[in-house]
Amino acid sequence: MIGVISTAYFTMKDKHNIKTVKKYWWKNCVIQHVKYHGKTFIIATIGYGKSNAAMAVTYLLEKYPGLQTILNVDLALSTNDKHDTADTTISTKFIYRDADLTVFKDIKYGQIVNEPESFQFDGEFAKVVKDFKLGLTEGVTGTADMLIYNSKQFKEMVDKYGHTIDVIDTEAGALAQVAKKSSVNYLALKIIYNNALSPWDNDPIHKFKMYETVNTLKYLLRRLFNLLSSKYVIDLSQSSNDDLDTINELFEIKHDEWIKLFKSNTHKILSGFGPSLMLVDKQEKSPVALDVIQVMKSKIKDEEGPSKVILGEDEWKNAPKKWLRKLLFLEQVRVNDDELLWNKSAKYDLNTEKLYKVETVANEIAAAIAEKCQDKSSYTYNGATVPEKYLLVSCDARISFYITHNQSHEFVEDKAFGSQLVANEFVKYLNEALKDVDSPYQQIVIYMGVPALDYRKIPVFIPSGRGANRGVKFGQMNQKFQRDYTVVDITRNDYDPVKVGSFKVTIRLKSE
Fold first, then answer.
1. Which domains are seen in the chain, by residue range?
2. For the chain, which has fewer Cβ within 10 Å, the N-terminal or C-terminal residue?
3. 119-120 vs 93-96, strand pairing mode
4. How crowded is residue 411: how many other Cβ atoms within 10 Å of its Cβ?
């Protein structure tokens, strides 16, 4: 059982394997019981300040004796340029930045009498979360019942305390103190809203910063819940960031089920043994090696955000124009998500993002598989050769298509069936390009994520036939699908637009 404490109120949408089973008020807190893939999470929304935090965590620990881990996931302010808006810090060290009991002998500023100078948590749980690399950077959190509005206040605090503080908030330190006394695991994950040293109380782009920060909070919680609710023993400390991007996405889409594509009795998922992952059973008798490769991975530019521009009262005049344009878009445009198709390549900005035909992407995937299949070497685990290895190919290309029925001319909107049609279209090109390639892998699985509503991705999995040291074939192409449906490339103009139709996207401009 895991407790999540935050001043931000959030709920989980009920669906398969996710259900809110109880919700009630206690004092000034909202308590929710959420079953997430079989794991129980107790979510407490609390008021601001140290007293509210201490009261809430004490109640949870007494009410739920099985609670062994406490997470504080919340918004906060940074105190340096290392952390920008929507960045996330992970804190295992906490201090009070408003405690001055130095009148007592040997007590330092920030320290409580008969308590340590700081509260630190460096156990196995902290290592697990750090190793999963959820886009986190480490930082020391300073807690007080006051916020900092300028660099002078911060300098006075550091002069007294004498240590670097990366993040300031009003709850984490009190939670840490109670957790330490109760001998439970504790971590704080803080999503940065703004830099505390710049004037932020009248920030003209406050709305957009909050939008970015809250979305980051939701994104982080989803990935964190996936990790903590997995039934596997997970050690990804040696995984690359590219591999972890793919692994995180698969956990988000299929949770533990994606592992069963390769080994049904997996107990441990381990990195650092040669392949991208080693999938190990409980008895460690028949491990399986899994190589992960990325094809056409999008490169993300490191763009500067507004909290790095600290220019006093004139900050708004010098804020990056791209942020101001985004803010304008948010204020002026409404998109009705209920009228968007699941295969909506139209969401891409054709001026800045290249779109690829299905055939082009299939050929790129085939070339990557052919190159990887040239490596006939095997892996070892605990001194023994691993007899089976698999290949997972992750493709992140922006593919341009939509699907229509050739007789009714209607769009296909069923997500599962649409995935089958897309996979069938790829098989046509893949099998032709790989007809002369022998594979050392027991099976090759291609995974693609097609953009869908609310920026989610609909998974398309294309498995090859099983058996190593033979030709690569991704199943038999369904001829009926080819006759009845057309996968239309939206960058081409050789289809009848009346037959094809148009995207059901409704954009409403606000009137002045």
1. 2-229 (3.40.50.1580), 343-489 (no CATH)
2. C
3. antiparallel
4. 19
Q: Is the pTM of this model over 0.85?
A: no
Identify the three-state secondary structure at position 169: strand
What's the whole-number average pLDDT of the chain?
79
SS3 at position 439: strand
**Of 163 and 264, the one with more pLDDT:** 264
Query: Do 431 and 474 contact (CB within 8 A), yes or no?
Result: yes
Which helix (DSSP H) or strand (DSSP E) does residue 184 occupy?
A: none
d(CA 232, CA 255): 11
pLDDT at residue number 355: 67
pLDDT in tens, 279-289: 999 999 999 99
The answer to whether residue 304 scores a pLDDT higher than 90 is no
Helix and strand totals (H; E) in the chain: 12, 27
> For residue 346, which of 510, 508, 502, 498 has the smallest C-alpha distance?
502
**Cβ-based neighbour number of residue 467 at 10 Å:** 12
* pLDDT at site 113: 85
Model confidence pLDDT, tens digit, residues 53-86:
999 999 999 999 989 899 999 988 888 777 778 7
Identify the CA nearest to 45 among candidates 87, 143, 34.
34
CA distance 482 to 503: 22
Q: Are 500 and 404 in contact (CB under 8 A)?
A: yes
- The amino acid at residue 44 is A
Sheet holding 443-451, edge to edge: 233-235, 268-270, 277-280, 288-295, 388-395, 443-451, 457-463
d(CA 466, CA 454): 35
CB 441 within 8 Å of CB 390: yes
What's the length of the chain?
512
**C-alpha distances in Å from residue 459, one per residue of 99, 163, 416:** 51, 47, 9
**Contact residues for 66 (Cβ-Cβ < 8 A; gap 6+):** 1
Kindly report each contact of residues 124-127 with a partner whose C-beta sits within 8 Å and lies 24 or more positions away, as own/partner: 125/69, 125/185, 125/187, 126/90, 126/92, 126/185, 126/187, 127/237
Give 146-151 contacts, CB < 8 A, sequence gap 24+: 146/98, 146/170, 147/77, 147/196, 148/77, 148/79, 148/196, 148/197, 149/196, 149/199, 149/200, 149/201, 150/197, 150/199, 151/197
Which spans in 70-205 are helix H? 124-131, 151-161, 172-182
